[in-house]
Design a protein that fits this description.
four-stranded antiparallel β-sheet, 237 residues, Glutaredoxin, 2 domains, 11 strands, alpha+beta, Nuclear Transport Factor 2, Chain: A
């Protein structure tokens, strides 16, 4: 007769915990919802740290107490595991599966056998991108899907249009980024560029260059060719 009672007690405890969690979330949403600077709260959940809740607005992470009386923004570190839990959370939220990339809105640059795959978001006026392009020339046997991502001003949009509308996009891009030959004026449908910017905003692509590898891993910045090689190998495992 004791077993059913134990089960009932366990079920009651679970229900109480669930109710408390729901009440905590509701109270946090109510109290923090009064702070317009936070914006729309997309998610509230318990953090790995006891008594601390995570509040997400878009890709911004905040932390609060169980009542939502205090709020702070910063990095939550797992000291024992030596992990930045906030960074890991943001990376997970902004992850993009390679097969979900809108490749029709990019153009290809194929080197060697082209078996390995890499997607790159770049602005034609980005100095770091120009440096990265020189590094990327040392990487062979890869297909680069180049997404024009004009986010640095009106001239970036003009250059991106001229490159996208060129007869040979890859050659025009390389001539500009490596040799400094400005692309000739061209006109065509630039809906792809607008979609690229919208896609980047949705997936938190905040800087150029941003690299996305075949396994979905993502790296911002003008990393050296050796690091690109290492990540391409890891992505193909």
């Amino acid at each position: 007769m004791k077993l059913p009672n134990c089960r009932a007690a366990a079920l009651a405890a679970a229900l109480l915990a669930a109710t408390a969690a729901h009440a905590g979330e509701a109270e946090i949403r109510k109290n923090l919802g009064a702070i317009p600077q936070l914006g729309q709260i997309d998610e509230v959940r318990k953090s790995p740290m006891p008594g601390v809740w995570e509040v997400r607005t878009g890709f911004d992470i905040y932390y609060t107490d169980e009542q939502g009386s205090y709020v702070m923004q910063g990095h939550l570190i797992d000291v024992k595991a030596r992990k930045n839990l906030t960074e890991e959370r943001i990376e997970k939220l902004s992850a993009v599966a390679f097969d979900q990339l809108p490749l029709k809105d990019a153009f290809k640059i194929v080197r060697g056998n082209g078996k390995r795959k890499l997607a790159v978001f770049e602005d034609p006026n980005c100095g770091y991108c120009k440096h990265f392009e020189k590094e990327l020339r040392n990487v062979d046997n890869v297909t680069v899907h180049l997404f024009l991502y004009p986010v640095l001003g009106p001239d970036s949009a003009v250059k991106s249009r001229d490159i996208w509308c060129a007869k040979d996009k890859a050659k025009t891009w390389t001539s500009w980024m490596i040799d400094g030959t400005r692309p000739p004026t061209a006109e065509c449908d630039v809906g792809a560029l607008q979609r690229n910017v919208a896609f980047g905003r949705k997936y938190n692509i905040t800087g150029t260059p941003t690299l996305i590898f075949e396994d979905g891993s993502r790296t911002p910045g003008a990393i050296p060719a050796a690091q690109v090689e290492t990540m391409l190998k890891q992505a193909s495992r």
